[in-house]
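Sequence only, no structure available. Ideas?
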Amino acid sequence: MKIDPKIIIVIEKYSELIKLVELAKTLDVKPIIGLRVKMMVKGRGKWEHSSGERAKFGLSIAEILNAVAYLEAVGLIGHNRKLNRSENEGGAAHYVQCTTFGKTYLFRNVMLGINIAAACTLLAFANVSTVSELFYVAAWASLSIINIMTALIGRALFYNLVIPTTMPGAFFWKNKGFEQHARDIGLADNPACGVAPLAH
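Reply:
I predicted one. Tokens follow.
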């Protein structure tokens, strides 16, 4: 019996995640990533002063949220590049997304960038004692609202672009003869047919 182990790379510091993503791009692999969480409970004994929030290894809740947002951004950029080169149903929906809904799509991506940048800033000042806890609560609440708005816009784009092209496009998926015929007669101008324009 052959053993097929799944290797999980566990991130213990946020900086390791950035290096892992860069390495994965270089090697063209999709690693399975785990995140080590800092326990908020303090231990007793010899390591009491390096436990809880002061632990050397592990990510805080804020760092985990930031890591998830960062991974989503990296995934979206890669997915965007792949769709720009494709000429299938997904490419057709992506073309409409970037043209007809271009401003909405750009606004969603800008909000995602603001969320990541603001989270990084808050993490950088997390140990500054001069900032009140009330400020941090308000800042994280604002980031949560921006994140929810970003998710809602993304979901709205999904229902406007993917659902209409999925049903008709499913009948002609990877049928090059139909795709060329649709372009010749102008049917490809209708995004619901699921055929991407030749250049986008």
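The chain has six helices and two strands.
Hope that gets you unstuck.
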